[in-house]
Amino acid sequence: MLIDVVCPGCHKRFQVSEKFAGKTGPCPACKTVIQVPTKEQQVVIHAPEEFGPKDRKGRAVLKPIERTEVRISPVVVVLIVAGSLAALLVAFVLGRAFSEGSVPRPLLAAGALLLAPPLVLGGYTFLRNDELEPYRGISLGIRVSICAVIYAGLWGLYTGLVGYLLGGRVEVWSLVFIAPMLIGAGATASFSCLDLDFGNAAVHYCLYLLITIVMRLVMGLSPF
Description:
The structure is a single chain. With 224 residues, the chain is mainly alpha-helical. The chain contains five helices and four strands. The N and C termini lie far apart (80 Å). The relative contact order is 0.10.
């Protein structure tokens, strides 16, 4: 066993054999005469005491909860891409099935609502805060559903505002006022439902908004 020694003159640290315990001798660096401590004088660093209840042998009864890292699997990525392509194909078919600009509003509303849950879930998978425990199971399903309904409802609110205030005709100047309100409302929804950072929450809603606009263009409708 080796004994740690610190020279009081030059503060050099070195180790000597335990057979020199309690003896004196010169420092190999500065030749200051030092006394080697005994084994009993050695400083022992103990691990911090564990908090919480213990059994009769002093062992901790409760174990800390280990956080499970959630990583994006290739299967999820493939499903998101495949679902997006399938939705675009459906939009293309609907655009050809109806004359230009005549897709029924109930069908558009149903499409906006059906498209929202997978987009909300996919966006949450990529944009969630890695420092927080992710939502799973029923809790995740409820939060995604609420956020999806709000996202689709914002399209309905926008349509109602355009129809009531602007007579169904969208002007560029009106988007300057309406778009920030929609993005703010959508960001607040994903911020509240999914605990995203507010900046990521705005990106999350804009992702849904962008994809639904692309769907409208594929169907031959105006983007707004």
